[in-house]
Amino acid sequence: MVDRPAVSDKIAIMTSGGDAAGMNPAVKSAVDHCRRMGAQPYLVEWGLRGMIEGWIKPATEESMYGIIHKGGTALGSSRSKRFFKLEFRKQAYENLEKLGISKLIVIGGDGSFGALHQFHCDFGVPFSGIPATIDNDIAGTDYCLGVDTALNMIRSSVDSIRDTASSFSRAFVVETMGRDCGYLAMTSALATGAEVCLVPEIPYDLDSIGERLRAERDAGKKYLLGIVAEGTGMGESLTRWMNDALDMDARLTVLGHVQRGGSPTVYDRIMAFKFGVAAVENLLAGETNKVVTFKDGAIYSRCIGEIAEVKHHCASDLINSCRHLSL
Ligand code: F6P
Q1: How remote is the CA of residue 179 from the centroid of ligand 1, in Å?
Q2: What is the pLDDT of residues 213-225, one digit of tens each?
Q3: How far is the centre of ligand 1, averaged over its atoms, from the C-alpha of 180 (Å)?
């Protein structure tokens, strides 16, 4: 990294939308890098709601103590509907203006980036985005903070379920989060050796799954694991189907918000460090409306248009690796 002359920018950092492990190390990384570069870091509490309410304060050394290993977001988050209204965005702008804050870093998903893009159109405040959502469904980036921690949570839960499934010779269906994206379900199905995986990205055929599973049972398989993405809405019906069509005692486990918690993994902390540094660098280089992304092993910055206006697709090799689990 090159030495830069001190700058006097005041940069406010916030977390927004669904919390994700990795948000805390990303806040710390951005704060630390602001200080290294001579900029003044500020913290917005409770995301967009905090901008409207004026819950903004200078980042102190103390506020960064003991957060790097914590899940969730120490700053708090929100999904603010009021921010859609110009009058509340104006209030948020006045709060920033009062403190002399001229730049923003938002750690969150594409909805939060879109909100700050609108804010930039209204008032000209540049922002830099850091992708963070367990869903891993943001266009233009292979990775979003929180995904590795969520996958490890799911892996550990499914490993435990396997213990009880094998003890009773039962079928278990596990529903993962991810909204309309099957990334968590597909990756977990491969990592846990599940027999079935239903995701929005892959058409499924219960008749052919039934034939395959009956043959596997005849060959000696004693229990079954199915992973279902919440976006399919198939958790309950797959469980009922396993019970009725396969004549197996079947149970459903909806993992829910447990997937969002937990101490960030080493991978999430390192990615958070890199994303935090890159977000600050973007703003100090005079960039506006850029989102930090990770593509083919390298960090890039992309314009908000390439993120917000492009539909996300899971990598085709992941989808292809899971097709046999839907047939
Ligand atoms: O976007 C993250 C996510 O956890 C999704 O996977 C899930 O559908 C949603 O948020 C749950 O939202 P909430 O926390 O508001 O219930």
Answers
A1: 7
A2: 999 999 999 999 9
A3: 11
